[in-house]
Amino acid sequence: MALRKKIGLEGIRFFAFHGFYPEEQVLGNEFMVDIITEMQVVHDGNDELEDTVNYEKLYEIAESEMKNTRKLLETVALSIIERIKELFPDIDTIRVSIRKMRLPLSGEINNSLVEFNYTRT
C-alpha cells in the first residue's frame, strides 16, 4: 500500500508591499499565505527531520519571498514554488495560495486570491 503525506502551513500572516499600483507598494497590505506539499511516504524507521518536509524551511521561503516587493502576487507564488522544488526535490505536489486582505475596491470583499498548483511529472 502506498502512503502519501501532506505537510504545510496555513494562514501565514505577512505585512508586505506587493501591488500593481504605486500606492500599494508604499502603503503595504496584509497578506495570508498557505503552502501545502504532498509526497510519497518513505518510512524506513528513521525518525529524522531530513527525511521529511521541514515546515520551518517552508516558512523561511515564504517570508523571504514576501519581503521581495513585486507587482503581481502570481510572481510571488511562483517564486515560492520554485524555491520549494529546489529544496525538496522529492515533493510531488505543491499548492501555494496568497490572499490580499484589503483591496482598493469599493465593494464588500473579504480578500483576493491567487493560487498555483504544481505537480511533478
Major sheet characteristics: 4 strands, antiparallel
The CATH C-level class name? Alpha Beta
Q: Which topology does CATH recognise?
A: GTP Cyclohydrolase I, domain 2
Rg is: 16 Å
Low-confidence stretches: none
Q: How would you explain this protein's 3D organization?
A:
The protein has 121 residues and is of the alpha+beta class. The chain has a single domain, classed as GTP cyclohydrolase I, C-terminal domain/NADPH-dependent 7-cyano-7-deazaguanine reductase, N-terminal domain (GTP Cyclohydrolase I, domain 2), CATH 3.30.1130.10. Helices cover 28% and strands 34% of the residues. The protein is built from 3 helices and 4 strands; from the N terminus they run βαβααββ. The chain has helices at 22-27, 55-67, 73-87; strands at residues 4-16, 29-40, 93-100, 112-119. The longest helix has 15 residues, at 73-87. The protein starts with a strand and ends with a strand. Its EC number is 4.1.2.25. It catalyses: 7,8-dihydroneopterin = 6-hydroxymethyl-7,8-dihydropterin + glycolaldehyde. Residues 7-118 form the Dihydroneopterin aldolase/epimerase domain. InterPro entries: Dihydroneopterin_aldolase, FolB_dom, GTP-CH-I_C/QueF.
Question: What's this model, at a glance?
Answer:
28% of the residues lie in helices and 34% in strands. By secondary structure, it is an alpha+beta fold.
Descriptive tags:
7,8-dihydroneopterin aldolase; Dihydroneopterin_aldolase; 28% helix; alpha+beta; GTP Cyclohydrolase I, domain 2; EC 4.1.2.25; elongated; 121 residues; 4-stranded antiparallel sheet
